[in-house]
């Protein structure tokens, strides 16, 4: 009877977990060779998970926290490269043909999602003014194609902000992304399993 009660409680917990709303904040920034990416996940206003990747001055750092407790901190990129060569460190291999799978994943995951903020600011430039204008227009097309599946499948509480600014006469690429949205835990789990399974079965 005791084990039956434990199984029942676990089942109730899993059912509740499926419908738990998760708030995800994504902040990304790139300037020259410096790159920063931070993803935080909140459950009921409590910070559950934080992942931060930072590359600065040819050094890479990865921080992994659960409930604010640091669980993992990587060493510099040289060790990661050495582990890659020794086949002790593997990364998820996303190929070009998986692009449409990723788009479909976004469509499925963002059903019933609520986007509180979407801000994208990109500054791009080449020394040649004509090529800068062409590249800016091409980038607008890419951003539009990537944003439309999100816009059509999610609910936005505020209009998304997208700024692409051409910088003439200099080679540069700077970007700043802030995305805050709320989604159910079950949606992430189910579609994440489907996506990983599709990659393994290719």
Automatic annotation (TrEMBL):
<feature type="transmembrane region" description="Helical">
    <location>
        <begin position="6"/>
        <end position="24"/>
    </location>
</feature>
<protein>
    <recommendedName>
        <fullName>DUF2953 domain-containing protein</fullName>
    </recommendedName>
</protein>
<keyword id="KW-1133">Transmembrane helix</keyword>
<dbReference type="Pfam" id="PF11167">
    <property type="entry name" value="DUF2953"/>
</dbReference>
<dbReference type="InterPro" id="IPR021338">
    <property type="entry name" value="DUF2953"/>
</dbReference>
<keyword id="KW-0472">Membrane</keyword>
<keyword id="KW-0812">Transmembrane</keyword>
